[in-house]
Amino acid sequence: MSDEVNVVQAGGYQVSGNRQGQVTVREITSSEVIRTFEMDEGVVVREVFLLDGGKTVAACQKDHAIFWNLATGKQIYRFPKRIYGFSNNETKFFTYKYPDGVSLYAYPELTQICELLNRRMAGPFHFLFSPDDRFLVVWFAAGYPSSDKNYPKRNRAMAALAYTKLFNLDTCQEIQEFSRLRPGKGKFSPDSRFYDFKKTWQSSADSSWSTTSWRFDLTTYELREISQ
Fold it and tell me: Dihedral of the CA atoms 228, 176, 109, 100 (nearest 10)?
């Protein structure tokens, strides 16, 4: 299992985290180490982020996040939850923590905007913000969040996808019409008007597999089949 578990690049820098709790910042062109930050020793660094045009480094372990000023190396904030991801404009981020579920926060204020989901049968393993940052889709799976020993794999062998949830971040509401569709992975359209996904099923008659493409309208919450 690789020691280095997360790497991101932005603004001429590369930030990586490892399984010992260390965060390293390098210049991309020279590979020179610019800063090294120490989190809780021996605890896997789950996520790393470069924010504010490369001025701020953030990293998460299983139950908290730390922000540093890259220029000074000083800690700016310590946040008491694991952060899973930031919106494209970096004004919002979402967290998941038992027993709180999924919550939305403002950045850089670090104040809670709303609670998005209180269901805790499974944890998030993938997510996607819409291009305009008004919607967030999260894929949940049993066995997540994983333990440090298993990270980034699941804690146990179970079906990968438990359910998918789509949230309207303007209203802080789950879009129930979407949840009832039980969609798999998909993507937002560039203009954030639609969410497209595919569904595959096996025929009971001849055991053949079929796939259809669908488009969910993010304005009307209506679904229609689209040609492949």
Answer: -120
Q: Count CB-CB contacts under 10 A for residue 180.
A: 9
Q: What amino acid is encoded at 179 in this protein?
A: S
Q: What is the pLDDT of residue 217?
A: 98
How far does Cα 225 stand from its chain's mean position?
A: 28
Q: How far apart are CA 207 and CA 205, in angstroms?
A: 6
pLDDT of residue 1: 43
pLDDT digits (tens, 9 = 90+) for 24-34: 999 999 999 99
pLDDT lower than 50: segments of the chain: 1
What whole-number percentage of the chain has pLDDT above 70?
91
Nearest partner of 166 among 125, 196, 133, 135, judged by Cα = 135
